[in-house]
Amino acid sequence: MSSIPKELKYASTHEWVRNEGDGVFTVGISEHAQDLLGDMVFVELPEVGDTVAAGDDVAVAESVKAASDIYAPIGGEIIAINEDLEDAPETVNSDPYGDGWLFKIKADDPSEVEGLLDAEGYQAVIDED
Amino acid sequence: MANRTPLFDAHVKAGAKMVDFHGWDMPLNYGSQIEEHNAVRKDSGVFDVSHMTIVDVAGAEAKAFLRKMLANDVAKLSVPGKAQYSSMLNDKGGVIDDLIVYYFSDESYRLVVNSATRERDVAWIQEVASKFDVTITEQTELGMVALQGPKAAEKLRLVIGDEAFAEVDGMRPFMSAQVGDLFIATTGYTGEAGYEIVLPASAIEKMWDDLLNVGVQPCGLGARDTLRLEAGMNLYGQDMDESITPLEANMGWSVAFEPEDRDFIGREALEKQKAEGHDKLVGLVMREKGVLRHGQKVVVDGGEGVITSGTFSPTLGFSIAMARVPNSVGETAEVEMRKKFVTVSVVKPSFVRNGKGLV
Predict the structure, then answer these.
(1) Do residue B33 and residue A62 have CB atoms under 8 angstroms apart?
(2) Residues B281, B308: contact at Cβ < 8 Å?
(3) Assigned superfamily of B279-358
(4) Contacts of B46 by beta carbon, 8 Å cutoff, 6+ apart
(5) What is B3-49+141-230's CATH superfamily?
(6) Cis omega before residue B218 (within 30°)?
(7) Which of B134, B137, B258, B267 is least buried, going by the fewest C-beta atoms within 10 A?
(8) ipTM computed for the complex
């Protein structure tokens, strides 16, 4: 059973979102997603300063098995990316909710996050797959 | 329900992620396929290959039968235990399956063929055999493990003991020996030294546990695929099938056109194709970010081709692939990846051997 932390919000496309305060949100992929993809070999991240809308494909997680698009769960400006993934993409596998985070967004409209799934809702999405 | 090998419970116990592989429940990985891959390149790993099909051929006309059915020539085999890579072709020269044939005597051979093609293979073997004085026996009570890696010999010695190991100590590649219940061959699908060990299904779990207990890494299909691709070894159904001839699949070296009077099935078609020209299977190397994948379009000098197998190479740290392309291919190719074209190098389809990169 893969872990789904209660304090995070989720997109049905398997991204998680953590509220860091001040309208800043950290984004990563769920443990379930990294498990489906298998060993990560490259993570292509957006550029700091990019403006994105919810649902835009902004990053690519490439595993031994497949390349998978990662979508922005909310709109805003990319204010940080996890540069450590350049040399250690496997961190996404080993610590998807911690050191394996992907990027931080400064939300245009923080209330957009409320439209995302809670842990229970995301669990239901996984169960349907 | 899917077929299970005698090691099914052992895989689950070892934490395997099980997947369906052509009707068999097989381990994909036991956590990280890259770690499993690296264990085989640097130390040792063991694979359950019990799903593969073992067919024994015996009888007065065993040699004549195999000289008819196989593209390589078993008449080249004279040392008991010697193994040979070969293939069975249809009349059009298409590959029904690739296989390893082991020679015991002119009247006794063993074939190890793929699991995915089991029914087709056995039916074909029976059909060709019906015209010869031979007995075909599918060995369903045997299991098989592949112990691979630079430390394979050391680990095998620890498990089977000095006395039994002495019988295979120093055995050259592509040889085999029956040691008690164990049929031990110096063959494999990884590009490393190692063994494929055939043994009674009832004894396989103990062998597996013993190997794990001396520190051998259990490895799944994921690592098996990246290892074989680095080694430049074909995967049936992906790099070739019944619509592809050995000449188009970098298997020409395993087709014996000499002696000229050996009339093996598919010969006429291959000779015609040889005269007329044909596509070939090449290696591709991409040093920039990204991973080449099966099915991607490849544009080369003189035409277009397709990637038959592609992956990230854990040993090399970049992506490699095999692609079938027109013979006019030059030193580079353009691969269509995620809506853009990327230039990659064209190399011989062999990327890693004995832990060392070749590209």
Answers:
(1) no
(2) yes
(3) Aminomethyltransferase beta-barrel domains (2.40.30.110)
(4) B145, B146, B147, B148, B208, B211, B212, B216, B217, B218, B219
(5) Probable tRNA modification gtpase trme; domain 1 (3.30.1360.120)
(6) no
(7) B258
(8) 0.84
pTM, full prediction? 0.93
Host H or E run for residue B320: strand B318-325
Task: Give me the residues paired with residue B3 across strands.
Answer: B24
Q: What is the pLDDT of residues B196-208, one digit of tens each?
A: 999 999 999 999 9
Cβ-nearest to A39 among B33, B289, B338: B33
pLDDT of A8 strictly over 90: yes
Domain with CATH 3.30.1360.120 in chain B: 3-49+141-230
> Minimal Cα–Cα distance from B31 to chain A, Å?
9
Per DSSP bridges, beta strands A40-44 and A51-52 are unpaired
E-strand spans in B123-260?
Answer: 135-138, 142-148, 176-179, 182-185, 194-200, 217-219
pLDDT tens per residue across span B326-344: 999 999 999 998 778 999 9
CATH number 2.40.50.100 given to A9-117: yes
